[in-house]
Amino acid sequence: MKKKDLINRLKSFNFPKNILDAFEKVDRSFFVTQNLKEEAYKDIPLPIGHNQTISQPYTIAFMLMLLEVRDGQKILEIGSGSGYVLSLLAEMNKNGEIYGVEKIKELAENSKEKLKKYKNVKVVQGDALNELQNENFDRIIASASFSELPQKIVNNQLKIKGILVAPVVSSIVVIKKGSRNKVEEYPGFSFVPIV
């Protein structure tokens, strides 16, 4: 599968233009290991080492759509892995601030190196609740699965009117924070568990 085949596949699901444009601009093969470059544009998850994966492009596009990214936002990705989603976010949010938090040191270091060209992206190694405890975000996306709703993160790090999109067990859950939080669930997905 070539890049244009993947883009055409994503177009067939009517994803918004800003998401398709980001997928068009970012080279997924740059974020996978040498031996998987041929596979980079298949619509499948791929291993990136340390029992972690780079998610399936369709799943990423679906989560980005639910995230409702607008330029100028402050966005956090939990479990930023290879840095692929951070680079998509950077293309969609050129005037915002983007933070990636990754527990596995080697992945954090590699993605820092790969994302050097994006001045608005910061990769932090460690745990979101500890490393970024004084930061609040307009949007939070998680790229690995929680065993239950990450309520602490919603309470402490998501701004009012903010949106969190996170895998919980085998569903993608969307939380819109307000005086009463609005929760939506989309079952039938598979993710590696959060470290």
Any overview of this molecule?
It is a single chain. The chain is of the alpha/beta class and 195 residues long. The protein has a single domain (3-187), classed as Vaccinia Virus protein VP39 (Rossmann fold, 3-Layer(aba) Sandwich), CATH 3.40.50.150. The protein has helices at 3-11, 17-25, 57-67, 84-92, 105-114, 128-131, 151-157, and strands at 46-49, 52-54, 74-78, 97-102, 121-125, 137-142, 158-168, 171-176, 182-187. A hairpin with a 5-residue loop joins strand 8 (171-176) and strand 9. The mean pLDDT is 94.
Identify the quaternary structure here: single chain
Helix tally?
7
Secondary-structure element order, N to C: HHEEHEHEHEHEHEEE
Which structural category do the helix and sheet elements fall into?
alpha/beta
Mean pLDDT figure:
94
Shape: globular
Our Rg estimate from Cα atoms comes to 15 Å
Point out poorly predicted stretches.
none
CATH class equals: Alpha Beta
Counting DSSP E segments of at least 2 residues, the number of strands comes to: 9
Give the biggest sheet: 7 strands, mixed
Query: Which band does the percent of strand residues land in?
Result: 25-35%
CATH superfamily: Vaccinia Virus protein VP39
The side-by-side strand order for the widest beta sheet comes to 5-4-3-6-7-8-9
Which features characterize this protein?
alpha/beta, single chain, 195 residues, seven-stranded mixed sheet, 27% strand, Rossmann fold, two-stranded antiparallel sheet
Helix-strand layout with pairing:
Layout (H helix, E strand, L loop, with lengths): L2 H9 L5 H9 L20 E4 L2 E3 L2 H11 L6 E5 L5 H9 L4 E6 L2 H10 L6 E5 L2 H4 L5 E6 L8 H7 E11 L2 E6 L5 E6 L8
Parallel strand pairs: 3-4, 3-6, 4-5, 6-7
Antiparallel strand pairs: 1-2, 7-8, 8-9
Helix pairs in contact: 2-4
